[in-house]
Amino acid sequence: MPSVQIHPKERERLDSCSERFRPLAWRLYREINAMCATENCAPLVVYGFRSASEQLAIWAHGRELIGPGVDIMHSSSWRLTADPSDKILTRAFPGQSAHNSGDAVDIALVEGVGTTRHWIIDPGVPGDRWHRIVGAAAKRLGLKWGGEFSFFDGAHVQHPEWTLSLRNG
Ligand SMILES: [Zn+2]
């Protein structure tokens, strides 16, 4: 696919990243876009900074509150839903994701056009497009790639110095 024009929403998401990560996120996007020119896919910036309430909404997918009166801002107040088809989307509770401080970006690879457009379905194994494009570009820039997390996240790239600081409350 030839290089694509960035959508204003995607630009907004890249710009929402932290001061230290923003220039890296833009370089990453440009590299991925250039690499997609010779592959059958195109980049799509899905997330930059994510607020605590947005993170909670994603966390809640596949989970339910244990009971009435619990504090929804504690991860221990949640359990997995009984429906096995209702898969969780994240292991990160609000404050536990690099997105919550603007130190991460999700750049998905999409294929198809118009209504057939969808994320590539490459399985996340070495040699596939997630590895050849997003993983390779992240590594060249010295960034941490979600494709190497225990929970494969091929679109996720974060600042190498971001660390989880667990706080009380
Ligand atoms: Zn992410």
Question: What would your notes on this structure say?
Answer:
The protein has 169 residues and is of the alpha+beta class. The protein folds into 2 domains: 1-50 and 104-163, 2-Layer Sandwich (Muramoyl-pentapeptide Carboxypeptidase, domain 2), CATH 3.30.1380; 51-96, no CATH class. The protein is built from 4 helices and 7 strands. The longest helix is centred in the first third of the chain and has 15 residues, at 22-36. It is globular, with a radius of gyration of 17 Å. The model has no long low-confidence stretch (mean pLDDT 93).
CATH architecture of the largest domain: 2-Layer Sandwich
Query: How large is the share of residues in beta strands?
Result: 15-25%
Average predicted local confidence, pLDDT: 93
Kindly give the count of domains: 2
Distance between the termini: 47 Å
Low-confidence stretches: none
What is the CATH topology classification name of the largest domain? Muramoyl-pentapeptide Carboxypeptidase, domain 2
| Total count of strands | 7
Give the topology string: H per helix, E per strand: HHEHEEEEHEE
Number of helices: 4
| Rg computed from alpha carbons, rounded to a whole number of angstroms | 17 Å
Bound molecules: zinc ion
Largest sheet: 5 strands, antiparallel
Helix content: 25-40%
From the helix content, strand content and strand pairing, which structural class follows? Answer: alpha+beta
Overall outline? globular
CATH class of the largest domain: Alpha Beta
